[in-house]
Design goal:
Length: 311
């Protein structure tokens, strides 16, 4: 059952690119995907691929130095992915590719990306190395491809962020498997992002069946061999993002003495549960924007919610 949202609680607005105030902007360059995950906030596949010339022209109008997050559905399916990546840096911005990693399991595709200005890859690893978990969460036994993609990301010298949704009763041991994976692949610098199910788009757990923030902290403490107190001590601390504390986000180094956010292993726990007065994760975020169908920029979660089932 879809939760009823009181849209009057949502502070929705749009900005022209010249007036942009967001530091991170999500760009859905395609709505096509080669997976059918059970938790997907953009499940609509009917929109055409983004036009590169229009994107490039929009970038030339964009104010500020931004982190451009190339996402989708699955951005590697866009035939002009290279152009999109290069254009972001040509216009003075930073970029990251947010992908399910299936295409990156191909060495030739990884090589193709290496020839662009891409530096960072965020790969979703909901099942980590376990095909049963992938099947139950992402409807595809794809562990082999995911692990090859992780290897290619490392071998081709991209920085790596991983994203894992913890689904109660399925992959609650994912943090320890992630740690094992990083050890096996000898990946010493990584951000491992752990979150719960977000009730946006298509999802497999309602709020009352979802693991909550405290549950995520406990799992991480137990499996990363840290204390819960240590993790909670980082709640409300800001390591990035222009000084704004993000409610529901806890970011901390695995090595307690490490203060360099871009070095060694970090964990980022994010509460995607929508159990709040607005019904979206992190309402009111001024950091994350999303490029709309009309080439304006809107607050990301608010835009996704307002357009649920559409763009
Ligand atoms: S979550 Fe990502 S990989 Fe999965 S179906 Fe949605 S867009 Fe595709």
């Amino acid at each position: 059952m879809t939760k009823k949202i009181d849209f009057s609680n949502i502070n929705y607005y749009e900005q022209q690119p010249e007036d942009n105030t967001f530091s991170d902007i999500v760009i859905d360059i395609t709505h096509r995907c080669n997976m059918e995950c059970k938790n997907c906030y953009i499940p609509n596949r009917t929109f055409p691929d983004m036009n590169f010339e229009k994107f490039n022209s929009w970038l030339s109008r964009l104010s500020g130095k931004c982190m451009i997050r190339l996402v989708g559905a699955e951005p590697t399916l866009h035939p002009e992915i290279d152009k999109f990546i290069n254009a972001t840096t040509e216009h003075g911005h930073m970029n990251v590719l947010c992908t399910n990693g299936l295409r990156l399991s191909s060495t030739s595709f990884a090589q193709r990306l290496k020839e662009t200005t891409l530096r960072g890859v965020y790969i979703s690893l909901n099942g980590v190395d376990n095909d049963d978990w992938y099947e139950e969460i992402d409807e595809l036994r794809c562990a082999k491809k995911k692990l090859q993609a992780v290897q290619n990301i490392k071998d081709f010298g991209f920085s790596i962020d991983t994203g894992t949704i913890i689904v109660k009763g399925i992959n609650e041991e994912a943090p320890s498997r992630l740690l094992h994976l990083m050890d096996t692949k000898d990946i010493q610098t990584v951000t491992m992002r752990i979150k719960n199910v977000g009730q946006l788009g298509r999802y497999q757990k309602q709020e009352d069946e979802n693991i909550k923030l405290a549950g995520l902290v406990k799992l991480c403490a137990d499996q990363f061999q840290l204390s819960e107190d240590y993790i909670w001590s980082h709640y409300g601390k800001v390591h990035r993002y222009g000084g704004r504390v993000e409610p529901g986000t806890i970011e901390f180094p695995m090595d307690e003495d490490n203060t360099d956010r871009y070095n060694k292993r970090w964990i980022k726990i994010t509460d995607w549960d929508t159990d709040n007065h607005v019904g979206i994760p992190d309402p009111g975020s001024k950091r994350r924007g999303r490029l709309t169908e009309n080439w304006t920029i809107a607050p990301m979660y608010e835009h996704i919610k307002m357009n649920e089932g559409n763009y």
